[in-house]
Write a sequence for this structure.
């Protein structure tokens, strides 16, 4: 059994939590170190009682005790939201960093140093820059995905033509470009279902499964998790175009997503795509439902977080 030491954030949402569940589904012996980014404190789940916070010195000491109890880990994996974990690489045979987030700068990655043997990146276009920042590491592309336990453990979603909301946007509206575009879509006559507060993972999944069309407006023209989750929910995914997304759709032809130009300030291309799809929902709902179902099955087969965990083990030669 592969032993994995995972640094992740404390929140039980988003990719950090989902990749943890992915490793557990592979029956790895997983030890999670949950990092509170708002203060220098940590929780060790499972092996050490939950609820106790450790500062960095205490955690180093507990790490030594942990190693003496269960031996050396096969893999130390640090997720992208963790800024600068202290060096515990001596308690694992292999070390890896998953730079899946779009927000971090080269300065952020430089602070990590070049001590990781493997660095995984979510966007193929980022590979050259990451190789410069981690010259001694093996750099590979590992996309985000969809959490299996949210979309594939309950009843199958309804066909897209039978859902209560035609268009949904499940991202955070925040301020700036997203708000302007959503206002432009409203002015164009679209009613877009949005969320007004923080949702649990289950609530988020249920809301997606109530939408026929799921709209994605990325923050930095990147591949985020929403297209994968939208297709897992059986939605028609509508997402902004970029070279990485085009490559993904070419690599996985079973996926079904319509793309639009989000690089300019003009939302006209998005409005055109949405009008075409809304028209198709009325004129030929069976075809769209069929395409959405095929994409959902493709997600189930190749694009879950359990698939990503398996990819990480394969790339690090632990599987």
């Amino acid at each position: 059994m592969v032993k994995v030491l995972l640094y992740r954030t404390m929140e039980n949402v988003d990719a950090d939590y989902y990749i943890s569940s992915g490793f557990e589904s592979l029956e790895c012996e997983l030890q999670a170190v949950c990092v509170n980014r708002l203060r220098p404190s940590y929780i060790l789940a499972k092996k050490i009682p939950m609820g106790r916070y450790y500062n960095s010195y205490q955690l180093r000491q507990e790490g030594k005790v942990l190693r003496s109890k269960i031996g050396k880990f096969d893999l130390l994996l640090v997720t992208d939201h963790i800024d600068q974990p202290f060096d515990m690489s001596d308690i694992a045979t292999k070390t890896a960093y998953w730079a899946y987030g779009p927000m971090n700068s080269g300065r952020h990655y430089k602070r990590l140093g070049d001590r990781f043997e493997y660095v995984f990146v979510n966007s193929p276009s980022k590979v050259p820059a990451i190789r410069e920042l981690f010259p001694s590491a093996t750099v590979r592309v590992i996309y985000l995905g969809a959490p299996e336990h949210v979309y594939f453990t309950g009843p199958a979603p309804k066909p897209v033509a039978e859902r209560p909301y035609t268009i949904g946007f499940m991202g955070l509206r925040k301020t700036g470009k997203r708000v302007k575009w959503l206002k432009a879509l409203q002015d164009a006559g679209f009613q877009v279902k949005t969320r007004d507060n923080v949702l649990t993972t289950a609530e988020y999944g249920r809301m997606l499964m109530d939408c026929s069309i799921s709209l994605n407006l990325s923050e930095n023209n990147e591949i985020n998790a929403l297209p994968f989750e939208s297709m897992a929910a059986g939605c028609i995914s509508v997402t902004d175009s970029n070279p990485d997304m085009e490559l993904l759709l070419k690599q996985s032809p079973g996926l079904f997503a319509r793309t639009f130009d989000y690089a300019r300030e003009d939302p006209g291309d998005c409005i055109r795509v949405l009008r075409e799809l809304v028209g198709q929902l009325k004129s030929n709902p069976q075809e769209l439902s069929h395409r959405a179902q095929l994409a959902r099955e493709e997600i189930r087969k190749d694009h879950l977080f359990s698939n990503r965990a398996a990819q990480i083990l394969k790339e690090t030669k632990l599987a």
